[in-house]
Design brief:
Length: 275
């Protein structure tokens, strides 16, 4: 298991697709830093002028960073494309292994379950890293020019109110709040990558394996907007600054993803013929 896992991790993280995805995400993170960070410094200086706005609350990194609000374009693009970005590096790897005959050669030397476990673990970690990489990079960049001031609820510039999840944590320990949502993003990205593995056993074409998680993601986003139940879409809870009314929606969706993909991937993976 250890050797198999190391090999799968090497294939997942050292591939060209992983490098391309991370480069694209770095561009988004830096682009946000340039536009909303450096680009807004003059505006922030004017707002903070004591002569013009003596009672204005200072800007904090927890409001300005890529995940701190819903109106920045790079953050929205990353959130919308996350299912595609998470699947691209390694989510379709089991489909590729079957079609190329690699899986057959592995099964001649070892049992299926250790290989499937190693494959799933590597895909999960790969998708998780993809999900949080640009957020972490951007947050660190924004910390270089904006102070990590404790959010002030009376400033009315934050979308985190008493009706949303973890609001007390946000106004008392904002770093823990950000860390909590990074964990949610990591798990979501990992599960989406695992969903690609499951679709690899259900679909006949590679483009379906790669695109299906994104199509489901967009469908739920559109359905939530049309029905007035926006909380069913992961778009609204992956950005920490958007605020989520209930954590039960997140828990149910993530658990449903996990149960479905593990049942399909391990269930069919142990039984389906690859010879």
């Amino acid at each position: 298991m250890n050797k198999l896992f190391k090999n799968e991790m090497r294939r997942a993280f050292l591939g060209y697709t992983m490098a391309f995805v991370l480069l694209f995400e770095c561009i988004l993170a830096v682009l946000h830093f340039i536009i909303y960070g450096i680009g807004d410094l003059g505006t922030v200086d004017r707002i903070l002028s004591l002569e013009k706005n003596p009672y204005r609350a200072p800007y904090s990194v927890f409001m300005i960073w890529m995940g701190g609000n819903t109106y920045n374009l790079p953050g929205f693009i990353h959130t919308m494309l996350l299912p595609l970005l998470a699947v691209l590096p390694y989510g379709a790897s089991y489909y590729d292994d079957i079609k190329s005959g690699f899986a057959k050669n592995v099964y001649l030397r070892t049992k299926r379950m250790p290989y499937l476990k190693a494959k799933y673990a590597a895909a999960f970690l790969c998708g998780g890293v993809v999900a949080i990489a640009p957020l972490c990079i951007n947050f660190l960049l924004m910390l270089m020019i904006y102070p990590a001031l404790l959010p002030e609820i009376s400033s009315c510039v934050y979308s985190i109110y008493a009706t949303v999840m973890w609001y007390q944590l946000f106004y008392t320990h904002p770093f823990l709040y950000v860390g909590g949502f990074l964990v949610i993003n990591f798990v979501f990205g990992g599960l989406i990558s695992g969903l690609g593995l499951a679709f690899g056993l259900l679909a006949d074409y590679r483009y379906i394996v790669i695109s299906m998680p994104l199509l489901i993601h967009i469908f739920l986003y559109a359905l939530g907007n049309l029905t007035g139940h926006a909380s069913i879409s992961s778009v609204f809870y992956l950005l920490p600054g958007s605020g989520m009314a209930s954590g039960r929606v997140i828990l149910v969706e993530l658990l449903s993803l996990f149960v479905f993909e593990t049942a399909v991937f391990f269930g069919k993976g142990l039984k389906d013929d690859v010879y």
